[in-house]
């Protein structure tokens, strides 16, 4: 009996040591606890808003219940669209400062009824500077039209320019093309006709000058000088 009484404390303490070592192993494998992050929580009516810090979903539930003074149990959803936050893995994907709504028993999420009320998104896009932004808008003003294209370009968010290209119906488009072709041919014909008339006048004028020169030959006397130069004085004496 004495031996049995001595073995009993050892048998009772053995499971405690095993459980303690198992919990310590789990803590070592899990690594350090994540730091608390800030969140914004509100009640179902959005009349009360609080900021809380929590490193995990369980702690966030506890902090929200305490800050909003709600009876347990409560559930958390995203304030922007009502997405339920139920798992720890989804909670870790939330950004800092995410707006959440705490719902009690029998309560449900509803969009805001107040005009002008806007909920900031949970994922804020990074700040950027747009150098150039080009947009294309294809539309129709009439069912028979081929379509119209509007191109708009904005530089540095300040300077903008746009161009509207309108394409009418196929029949009207062909008609306009034929009209422009006819106008081009007429203009070309006028230019060629004027040029040919001017060249013809030049040729006629040249031929008339040649005929006049042939009809009236230059007399021989006009070719000779009117008076001969005087001989030098010394040569006359000789």
From TrEMBL:
InterPro entries: CIDE-N_dom. SMART domains: CAD. Keywords: Apoptosis. Residues 35-111 form the CIDE-N domain. Gene3D superfamilies: 3.10.20.10. The keyword Electron transport does not apply. Pfam families: CIDE-N (PF02017). GO terms for biological process: apoptotic process; regulation of apoptotic process. This is CIDEC protein. The gene is Cidec.
């Amino acid at each position: 009996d004495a031996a049995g009484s001595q073995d009993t404390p050892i048998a009772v303490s053995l499971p405690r040591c095993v459980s303690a070592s198992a919990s310590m192993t789990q803590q070592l494998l899990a690594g350090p606890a994540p730091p608390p992050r800030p969140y914004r929580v509100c009640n179902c009516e959005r009349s009360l808003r609080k900021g809380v810090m929590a490193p995990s979903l369980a702690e966030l539930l506890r902090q929200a219940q305490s800050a909003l003074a709600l009876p347990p149990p409560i559930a958390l959803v995203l304030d922007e669209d009502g997405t339920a936050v139920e798992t720890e893995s989804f909670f870790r994907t939330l950004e800092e400062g995410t707006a959440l709504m705490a719902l009690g028993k029998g309560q449900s999420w509803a969009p805001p009824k107040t005009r002008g009320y806007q909920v900031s998104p949970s994922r804020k896009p990074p700040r950027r500077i747009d150098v150039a932004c080009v947009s294309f808008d294809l539309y129709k003003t009439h069912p028979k039209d081929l379509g119209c294209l509007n191109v708009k370009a904005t530089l540095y968010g300040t300077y903008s320019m746009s161009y509207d290209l309108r394409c009418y119906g196929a029949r009207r488009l062909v008609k306009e093309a034929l009209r422009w072709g006819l106008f081009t041919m007429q203009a070309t014909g006028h230019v060629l006709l004027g040029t040919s008339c001017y060249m013809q006048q030049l040729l006629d004028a040249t031929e008339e000058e040649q005929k006049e020169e042939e009809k009236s030959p230059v007399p021989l006397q006009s070719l000779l000088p009117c008076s001969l130069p005087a001989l030098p004085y010394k040569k006359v004496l000789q």
